[in-house]
Amino acid sequence: MCGIVGYAGGKSAAGELFEGLKKLEYRGYDSAGISTLGGGSIFTIKKSGRVEGLAPRMGELEGCVGIGHTRWATHGEANDVNAHPHIYGSFSIVHNGIIENYAELKAELSAEGHVFFSHTDSEVIAHLLDYYYKGNFAEALSLACSRLKGCWAIAALCKQFQGFTVTRHGSPAILGEGEDGFFVASDMYALMGRARSYCILADGDIALVTPRGISIYDGQLQPVARNFSPLEWEEEEVGTGGCPHYMLKEIRQNARTVRATCRAFASSGCGGQCSRLKEADKIVLVGCGTAYNAALAAVRLLGGAYECPVSAHIASEARYDPPRVTQKSVCIAVSQSGETADTIMAAKILKDGGAYLIAVTNVGYSAITRFADKVVPVCAGAEVCVAATKSYIGQLACFHMLAAPCAPRVRCGALMKIADDIERVVSDGVYAANIASLCVKSRAVFFLGRGADVDVAVEGSLKLKEVSYIFSDGYPAGELKHGTLALIDESVLSVVLICDESLCEKSKTAVEQILSRKGKVAVITTLPHIYAELSARVSAAWLLPCAPSHLAHFLSATALQLIAYHAAVMAGRDPDKPRNLAKSVTVE
Ligand code: G6P
C-alpha cells in the first residue's frame, strides 16, 4: 500500500529512484513523485497516474540524494497536489500509512500560520518537521513523530542535510547497502539487484542515510547497531520472465510454489506444529481477500484431520468481534504479504487472548512474522501482480502439510504429483481462453460448486472481478434455487466446478437448472464421465487431469486464475494493476 524509495550515493538519484518506483508500483499506482537534493536545493516532480508519467520531467531532478513515492490514495483524491512528496519550508517528505490525528495537528499548525496545500493526512509531517527543526534533523523527526497517531514509514529530506532520514511505526521500511550507494524501500523487491545487504528498520528507530553510509538511532536518539543480512534473490524473481504480464508468469509458477513450499515445510521443522494442532481446543483462521479464501479451504482440510472445531474468519470482522480463544487455542493468520493491517490486528487480539499464533505467509521478514509464535513459509517468491495467484496455491500446500500429522511424506508425495498436474493445466491455455471469451461477453459470471469446489468458486469469482471488472459471484450450487436463479438468462454465464465424485450428481442438477432457464454454462471437471456427459450440451467444458477430490482445488483454482487472466486481457484491462486496488493493504 503505497511505496517508498530513497537513495543516497555516487550516482544520480533520479534514475535510481525512478527504477525503484517502477518496481514498487504494484503497491499503489494512482500517483507518483520524486524529490532530490542537490546544491542545497530540493527539486520535486509529482503527478497523478503511473510512475511512467514522471519520465518527461526527470531532467529537472539534480543531485545524488533523493526520495520517491508511489501512492494508493487514502486521504484526498488522486491528483497532482495530493501526490507525495509533500514540501514545506526546508523539508520534503514521503509517507506510507495513516496519520489518524492529522486534522487536529493541521488545525494547531494553521493557528501558528502554516499554510497547507493538499488534502492529505501526510502533509502535516512536513509541517511538523519545519516546526520542530532547530538544526538537528533526527531530533526534529523524533519530535514530529511523537505527535503522530496512526502508522507510518517516513523518508524525509532537509535542505540543510546531505542525505535523508527514515523512521517507521507499523509500516515497513528496509534499509539497503549497495555498491554505489545506500537505499531505503518499503519492500524488499525494490532492493533486489541493487542492494547487497539489508536491514529491517525497527519501529521507532531513526536512520540517517548519506552517500557515505547509514547510521541508526533508537527512540532516545542513541546510536544503535543493527544487523545487515546478505540480500539473496533469484534472477527470475525480477521481471515478467518473458510473459506479457506478471499475473501469467506467476500462475505459471504455481507448480514450483507447491514443490518449494512442501520442501520448506519439512526443512523448517513445521511438522511439529501438527502436534500443537492435535492438542488444540479450537483452531481459528484469519485473513483477508484471497488469503481468507485459502482459509476456507483450510477449514475443510484441518477439520478433517483434527478433532477440535476449525473456523475461518474475515480479519476485518474478527478484530472487532473476535472468536473466543483460550491458552489451548491455535490461531492461524494467513497473509501473502504479512503486512495486511486487519489481519495483523485480528492476529494480535487472538494472541493476546491466549492463542498460539501460526503465521502462514510468503514474506519471511514481514510484520506478522515478528510476533507469530511460528511461521509456516509459503515459498512462492515475489508476487507482484496485485491479484494473488501462486501465493494462494502455496497457502493450500501449507494447509495440506499441516493437515497430515501422521504421514507427511505421503502427503508431500501427493503434492509433488499434483504439481505435475498443475503444469498440465497451465499448458491447456486454449480452454482458459475459450471460457474467458464467454466471460467477457456476459453481463455477469457466477461460479458454482459443492463441497471443496465452493471454496474455489468463491476465489475464482474474486479473481475474475479483481482483474476484469466483470460482475461475478461464487457460491454453493445448492443455493442457486434460493435466489440467484432469478438472475439467470442468456446473458449470464455460470461456471460450474465438478471435481468431487460423491457430489457430482447434485452439481449436475444445477447445470440442468441453468440450462432450462437458457443460461450459459461452462463446466470445469476432473471427472471424465462428467465431461463426456455434459460437454456437448454446454457452451464450454474443460477436463482437468484426474485428481482426488481433496487435491483437485490445486487444478481448478489454477484453471480459474487462467480464465481471469485471459478475460482481463480480452477486456483490455491491466491484470497486474487493477483499478483502485493495491497489493498489500497496510491501512485499516
Ligand atoms: C489486497 C489484495 C488481495 C489480497 C488481500 C490480502 O486486498 O489486493 O489480492 O488477497 O489484500 O492480502 P495478504 O497480503 O494479507 O494476503
From TrEMBL:
The keyword Zinc does not apply. It is an enzyme of class 2 (transferase). Residues 2-212 form the Glutamine amidotransferase type-2 domain. SUPFAM superfamilies: N-terminal nucleophile aminohydrolases (Ntn hydrolases), SIS domain. Residues 273-412, 435-578 form the SIS domain. GO terms for molecular function: carbohydrate derivative binding; glutamine-fructose-6-phosphate transaminase (isomerizing) activity. InterPro entries: GATase_2_dom (IPR017932), GFAT (IPR005855), GFAT_N (IPR047084), GlmS/AgaS_SIS (IPR035466), GlmS/FrlB_SIS (IPR035490), Ntn_hydrolases_N (IPR029055), SIS_dom (IPR001347), SIS_dom_sf (IPR046348). The keyword Metal-binding does not apply. Keywords: Aminotransferase, Glutamine amidotransferase, Repeat, Transferase. Its EC number is 2.6.1.16. One of its GO terms (biological process) is protein N-linked glycosylation. It catalyses: D-fructose 6-phosphate + L-glutamine = D-glucosamine 6-phosphate + L-glutamate. PANTHER family: GLUCOSAMINE--FRUCTOSE-6-PHOSPHATE AMINOTRANSFERASE, ISOMERIZING (PTHR10937), GLUTAMINE--FRUCTOSE-6-PHOSPHATE TRANSAMINASE (ISOMERIZING) (PTHR10937:SF0). This is Glutamine--fructose-6-phosphate aminotransferase [isomerizing]. It comes from Candidatus Coproplasma avicola.
